[in-house]
């Protein structure tokens, strides 16, 4: 039987979007005002020590649960329902085509039968869900269905983490899908961009940078590369003799020595721009495409001074930093200055919080 109705389930009740990465836990809660405009009710970050979460796996459960409890307490929210996400590497997705006109129950039976062809382990070991996308373009009497499956223990880890923090996981999404949902608003607002614009979205994490190329809400290409903001922290540690914690804190708060910009930051920004350009070249050489219309930068290192300009110089394509809260009202509980500084880090958490309003 279908064992998880949450990978694509839509929940209209108040909802927390919680993104668990290798370096932090991020929380976003969204509402709507009377005009229907999105409102940022709450957003906050709690840092994690290195190794607590590794490649999406929760290695130190109690410590991560404790961080999540502190985060929820810090936000003073009464909302208990949460949307969490798994990394793309932990989820098998497949678009399949089925006859139209089937009932939900008939679809479930058919999806489970089809899933056997694509999942390399027993269905007893997986959490499985599906979402009807719509009529097939080439055969309108048939429907396209998106199938998603993950090892059950991966989903249960996320559910148990929520429970340990006094929360209830009602949605388990896929990180790249949540990021794409939040980025969709920003892509539509790009100046002069047509409906078929190709946008390369880079999420620059602590250890890994994820890239996806988006066109009309679909992902044409995804790739992860092993570089991120933690490398900048390591350079600071080596240059100035700070501890890891000191270096990270001083980097976040802008408290580094005067020569930091010229000695460390500028060379690192150039190096990162080269890495992003290299990732784009992989896309060009493995697909029919040879250009993108725009590059969006998200993640903790996206706001590094001079990075968008360096990326444009390296690639020749326009580039900007993603603020997922752009165009939203900001609630009174949000610390505006801190939120503005950290906004690009919240892209995936914002996409998860937006699931509240999907009908």
From TrEMBL:
One BP term from GO: cell division
Protein name: Type IV pilus assembly protein PilM
Family matches, as SUPFAM superfamilies: Actin-like ATPase domain
Ranges for domain SHS2: 15-183
């Amino acid at each position: 039987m279908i064992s998880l109705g949450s990978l694509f389930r839509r929940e209209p009740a108040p909802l927390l979007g919680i993104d668990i990465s290798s370096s932090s836990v991020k929380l976003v809660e969204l509402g709507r005002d009377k005009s229907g405009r999105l409102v940022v009710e709450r957003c906050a970050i709690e840092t994690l020590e290195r190794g607590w979460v590794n490649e999406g796996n929760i290695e130190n459960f109690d410590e991560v649960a404790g961080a999540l409890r502190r985060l929820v307490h810090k936000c003073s929210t009464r909302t208990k329902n949460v949307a969490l996400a798994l990394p793309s590497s932990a989820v098998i997705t497949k678009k399949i085509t089925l006859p139209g006109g089937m009932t939900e129950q008939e679809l479930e039976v058919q999806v489970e039968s089809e899933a056997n062809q694509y999942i390399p382990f027993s269905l007893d070991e997986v959490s499985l869900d599906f979402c009807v996308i719509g009529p097939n373009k080439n055969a309108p009497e048939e429907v396209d269905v998106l199938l998603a499956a993950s090892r059950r223990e991966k989903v249960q880890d996320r559910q148990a983490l929520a429970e340990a923090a006094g929360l209830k996981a009602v949605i388990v999404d896929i990180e790249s899908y949540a990021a794409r949902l939040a980025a969709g608003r920003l892509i539509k607002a790009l100046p002069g961009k047509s409906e078929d614009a190709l946008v390369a979205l880079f999420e620059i994490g602590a250890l890994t940078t994820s890239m996806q190329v988006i066109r009309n809400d679909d992902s044409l290409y995804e790739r992860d590369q092993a570089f991120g903001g933690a490398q900048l922290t390591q350079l600071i540690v080596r240059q100035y003799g700070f501890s890891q914690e000191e270096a990270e804190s001083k980097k976040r708060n802008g408290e580094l020595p005067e020569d930091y910009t010229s000695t460390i930051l500028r060379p690192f920004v150039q190096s990162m721009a080269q890495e992003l350009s290299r990732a784009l070249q992989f896309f060009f050489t493995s697909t029919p495409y040879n250009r993108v219309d725009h590059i969006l930068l998200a993640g903790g290192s996206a706001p590094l001074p001079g990075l968008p300009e360096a990326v444009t110089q390296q690639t020749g394509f326009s580039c900007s930093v993603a603020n997922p809260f752009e165009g939203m009202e900001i609630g009174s509980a949000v610390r505006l200055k801190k939120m503005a500084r950290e906004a690009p880090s919240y892209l995936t958490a914002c996409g998860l919080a937006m699931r509240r309003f999907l009908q």
